[in-house]
Amino acid sequence: MLAGLEKYAALAALSARHGCPWVEYHESVSGPQFLLWKLDMARLRAEGWFPREVAAGRATVIATAPGPALAAKVRETLGVQEVEFQVTLPEDLTRIFEHNQDLNPGFPPTAGRTPLARVRTYLAGRRSLLTHYRPLLAKSRTGLAFIRTGLSFITIALLFLRLLGAGYYLLLEVFLLISGVIIVYDGLKWYLPARAIFAALPFCVAPGTAGGTSVLEAYNEEETPQFRRCAEVPGAAALRAGWTSMSPVMRRRYLASDRTDLAEERTVLACYRTRMAKVRTGLAFTRTGFAFISLGLGLLRQFEASRWLAFDLGLIGVGALMAVEGFFWYVRGRQAGVEGLDSVREKTSESTIWDYFFPHRHALPGADKNPMVLPVKSSHAPGIWATTGLALERTMLAERRNVMARLRTVMARARTGFAFIRTGLSLFLIGVAFMLYFLRAPGLGWTFFHYAMMAAGLLLVADGFVWSLPAERMRRQFSYCCGEMEITIPDYGTPARFWQKVVFGHGEG
After folding, report:
1. Per-residue pLDDT for the chain (509 aa), expressed as one digit of tens each?
2. Which of 92, 183, 261, 278 could pair covalently with 333 via S-S, beta carbons 3.0-4.6 A apart?
3. How far apart are CA 107 and CA 291, in angstroms?
4. What angle do CA 247, 249, 252 make, to 5 degrees?
C-alpha cells in the first residue's frame, strides 16, 4: 500500500499516462445507488472500473487502466454514448467498491449493514418460533396434569368397583369413570401437539467469540434460513484495534456486526431455554408414570393375584410407558442445560462493548503516558457523532438484553433443576412408603427395589441442586430481579448533563 508523497507521485504518473484526472479513495467518492443495486459489482471489480456518475448519455467512470476496450464495455453495460475516465490505484478502487457496498476493508459482501440487518431479522424470526414452542410445551405440561387427574378418576372408579362392587355406589363409579375418560382425552389434546414439535426443535450451536473479525451469514433463505460464519477476515482484528482512528461509518459497520453476533447469542440461549422446557415436560411425564407404577405395584402386593390382576398390570404397564416416554425427553434435552450454563459463563467472563471500546485506564498498558481518549473532536458536527453514538447505544442496549437473556437461561436451568428435585423426591418417597407399608417380611428382591428407588431419587435431588445453585448466585449479582432500573436517553447533539433519564420500577413491564 503506497502512502504519502509516493502515492501521489504514482497517481500523477497514471494521470499523465492515460491523459485523464486522478482520484483517490475517500468516503465521499460514491456512485448512483439505484444503479449500483442493479449492477454485478463482482464483475465490475474484476474488469477494474466503477461508475461514479451517469447522466444524459454520459458516464464518468473510475478505472485503474482506462482504454478503448474498457470504454466499449462501459458503454455496453451502462447504455451510454460517451465515457469519461478518472484513474486511480488498484487498492483505492478496491476501497471505493467496498465503501459503496457498505463494507470495511477485506470483508465479504455479507458484512454490509443491510445484509446483517436481514440476518438479524431471520434470527428474530427463529427466536419468535422458539417463543411459540415454549408455551406449547407449558401447555403440554398442563395437559399432563389433566391426564394425571383423569387417570386418577378412572383408578378411583375402578377401585370402588373392585372393593365395593356395583351396588349403591354404581352411580358414583360411573360418574368418576366417565369424568376421568373425558379429562384424559382433553389432556391428550393438549399434550400431543407439543410432542409433534419434538423433531422440529433445532440444535443449539453455541456461538463463538468473533469480535467483529468474521461475519454471520444466512443461506437457504428461500426455504428455512440457516446460519454459518465466514472465515476470519485477515487484518480485521488489527483494524478494529484502531477504533479511535476509524471513520464514523466504519465504526457503525463494526457495531452492526456486533449487534448481529449478540442476536445470534440470544437466539442460541432461547434454543437452550426451549430444550430445557422440553426436559421439564419429560420429567412431568416421568412423575406421572412413577405414580401409576407405584399404584399398580401397591395394589399387586396388597391384593396379590386376583381377577383384577390385568388391571394392576395395566397400571404398571401404562406407568412404565409414561416413564420411558418422559425419560426419552429428559435424556435428549438434558445436554442443553449443561451447554447453556457453559455458554453463559463464557460470555459473562468477556469484556462488555463499552469496556472494549472505552477501556479503563488501569487496563491499558502505559495508560499514564498514552491515555485512551473518546473518538470525539470539537470539529465534529453533532449529527455525525450522533449517528455513530446512537449505533453504539443500540449495541450496548443489545448487550444488556443479552445479559438478561443469560440470566433467564440460568433461571430456566434452575427451574429444570427444581423439576429434577420434584421427580427425585417423588421417587424417594414412593420407595420410603413401600418400605414402611410392606415392612413385614418384604423379601430380598423387594428390599433391593425399595432402596434402589430411594437411591435414584436422592441422585435426582442432588442433581437438581447442582442445577439450581448457580442461578441463585447469579440472581444476587444482577439488579434486574428487584429494585429499579434507570436508563439514560442519550442526545449526542447536546451536552451529557442535559440528557434525560427514565426509571423503570420493579413492578412495571
Report:
1. 555 678 888 889 999 998 999 999 998 899 998 888 889 999 999 999 999 999 888 999 999 999 999 999 999 999 999 999 999 999 999 999 999 999 999 999 999 999 999 999 999 998 998 888 888 888 888 888 888 788 788 878 877 877 777 777 788 888 888 998 999 888 888 877 777 776 667 677 766 666 778 898 888 888 788 888 888 899 888 888 887 788 888 988 988 998 999 999 999 899 888 888 888 888 887 887 887 787 777 777 666 666 777 777 887 888 888 888 777 777 767 778 888 888 888 887 777 776 666 655 545 454 444 444 555 555 655 554 567 778 888 888 888 888 888 888 888 888 888 888 888 888 888 888 777 776 665 677 777 877 888 898 898 888 888 888 877 777 666 655 444 556 666 666 676 667 777 665 544 43
2. 278
3. 59
4. 115
Residue 496 lies in a domain: no
The grid coordinates of residue 278 equal 422440553
**Which residues have CB under 8 Å from 145's CB, separation 6+?**
187, 284
CA distance linking residue 117 with residue 114, whole number of Å: 5
List strands edge to edge, sheet with 82-87.
Answer: 49-55, 58-63, 82-87
Please, what is the Cα angle at 304 between 300 and 307, to 5 degrees? 95
CA distance 14 to 7: 11
Is residue 215 assigned to a domain?
A: yes
The DSSP letter of residue 109 is G
Last residue of a domain, one of 67, 101, 135: 101
Question: Are 236 and 351 within one domain?
Answer: yes
| HSE toward the beta carbon, residue 483, CA cutoff 13 A | 8
* 136 & 65 share domain: no
- SS3 at position 140: helix
Going by C-alpha positions, the residue among 167, 416, 176 that lies closest to residue 280 is 416
Question: How many separate domains does the chain show?
Answer: 2
Domain encompassing residue 71: 4-101
Same domain, 132 and 158: yes
User: Is the domain of 190 the same as that of 228?
Assistant: yes
Residue that has been written with the C-alpha cell 426436559 in this structure? 279
Q: Kindly state whether residue 480 falls inside one of the protein's structural domains.
A: no
pTM over 0.90: no
Residue 413 lies in a domain: yes
DSSP character at residue 502: E
Alpha-carbon dihedral of residues 493, 494, 499, 500, nearest 10 degrees? -70
CB neighbour list of residue 402: distance below 8 Å, 6 or more residues apart: 262, 265, 266, 269, 347
Q: Are residues 188 and 271 in the same domain?
A: yes
Phi, psi at residue 303, to the nearest 5°? -100, -10
357: enclosing H helix or E strand: helix 353-357
Residue 165's contacts (CB-CB under 8 Å, 6 or more residues apart) are none
Residue that terminates a domain, selected from 412, 445, 478: 445
290, with CB counted inside 10 A (0-12, 13-18, 19+), is buried
